[in-house]
Amino acid sequence: YGSYVRGTERKVWINGTDGVTPLVGEVWPGETVFPDFTNPECTNWWVEECRLFYDTVPYDGIWIDMNEVASFVQGSTNGCEQNDLNYPPYTPGIVDRLMFSKTLCMDAVQNWGKHYDVHNLYGYSMGIATRRAIETVFPGKRSFMISRSTFMGSGKQTGHWLGDNAATWDHLKWAIPGMLEFNLFGIPYIGADICGFFDDTTEELCRRWMQVGAFYPFSRNHN
């Protein structure tokens, strides 16, 4: 796989606790390594990969997903070491009561520091790298980018959508304050999946959602 080979040669992956060996997780294709977008060399690699992909499949914008960063295994395919980063003295009420549930080990090593300290900046750093790629692929042209994971200030680089919602009246209602809150975070280009992402919608729910969704800054039916 060319992207993996080129990335490995340039040492752009997030590493395990030893700081040398790429951490391996699992996402849709199977076993997966994760680009360290806090590494300037990774940004250069990403820009080139986006350009190469455009040469094969011309596109107009980039939709970034799974960049919390998400993984289908707990921490890594080899698990996580027993230490205070992976198992801190206090763990908040999160999924599975594990800091690395559905993501990477907290002692994984990135250019900006341990994953424990920069986990919430993964989408932010990927947005910066992707903006560089867009400016390279589309010089002097307006493009489009949305990201599922963002941080305060990400609005300078990318838009955002509220993630995987459901086809319910409650989710239609709660999308409105959700989008208003993201304006407070400096991300004005914001939307929700109109008619819901999970579950089957109804004609009445979808009709009403399309009506209110016409006023979303980012308006997309994704049921």
UniProtKB/TrEMBL annotation:
Any GO BP annotation: carbohydrate metabolic process
Gene Ontology MF annotations: alpha-1,4-glucosidase activity
InterPro entries: GH, Glyco_hydro_31_AS, Glyco_hydro_31_CS, Glyco_hydro_31_TIM
Glycoside hydrolase family 31 TIM barrel domain residues: 2-223
Record-linked Gene3D superfamilies: Glycosidases
Pfam family, one: Glyco_hydro_31_2nd
UniProt KW keywords: Glycosidase, Hydrolase, Signal
Record protein name field: Sucrase-isomaltase, intestinal
Organism this protein belongs to: Manacus vitellinus (golden-collared manakin)
